[in-house]
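For the sake of transparency, this paper describes our internal protein records without simplification. The record that follows is passed on verbatim for readers who wish to inspect the format:
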Amino acid sequence: AALEAFVDWQINEGSSGLVPCGTTGESPCLSPAEQKRVVEITVAIAAGRVPVMMGCSSNSTEKAVALAKIAREAGADAVLVVTPYYNKPGPEGQIRHFAAVHDAADLPFYLYNIPGRTGVDVTIDTMAAMREGLANFVGLKDATGDLARVSEQRQMLGKDFTQLSGEDGTALGFNAMGGTGCISVTSNVAPRLCADFQSASLSGDYAKALELQDRLMPLHWALFSETSPGPVKFAAELLGLCSGDLRLPLTKPGAQTQSLIASAISSAGLDPVGL
């Protein structure tokens, strides 16, 4: 029930897409059956109003392929696939992993490059090889923090290649460099502000975007003051969106972080929603 209400609220507040079973959704701690249920509920409540991109990530190719099949069968519109973590494959292993998931999904395929969590970077040359060989490879969630890469990727992968920021704090610069949006953590608790920020930055109204950036920045900081998604889930609990419970090995943020989050929520002018 909480997920159903949350999805509906996100859409009504201006979010232009949904990403169930991503990092913020604690996907590493969900069973395949639970991930299937999450995406089915999300697709059903979205009811075609916005696209649904399912996170289909694992450092096991076999498991990621199984999730991609779930995404297709559940009616997702696209898949988001992170670089295999811990085992840190090289370019050949990366391409073969992504190709297997790409083929199983038979949906628009978005790569999630986040070296800080996976321990390995997907180079632009590797992405270029994927663009040549994978027909549905249409976009990227980039959480490298390297804004220069946005222009480099635009040159190598094409202007029609969708680049989405994976970092709220640098999303303004990302869009200015040629990005087309953000898969956001902060939008889980401030969707209207984040939607307005994206609209302003993508339309070239940088004065308005900067005003919203200044308002949101304390919240961006607070939500990453401890390992995500602990802080954002605590913020969601404060706003009445859902329980703040987490599955181990994640734990609820400490008292100092809780205070920081509460202050940032107040600074951003957010009011309890109480779904």
About this structure: Residues 206-222 form the longest helix (17 residues). The beta strands are 53-55, 78-82, 109-113, 137-142, 162-165. The longest strand covers residues 137-142.
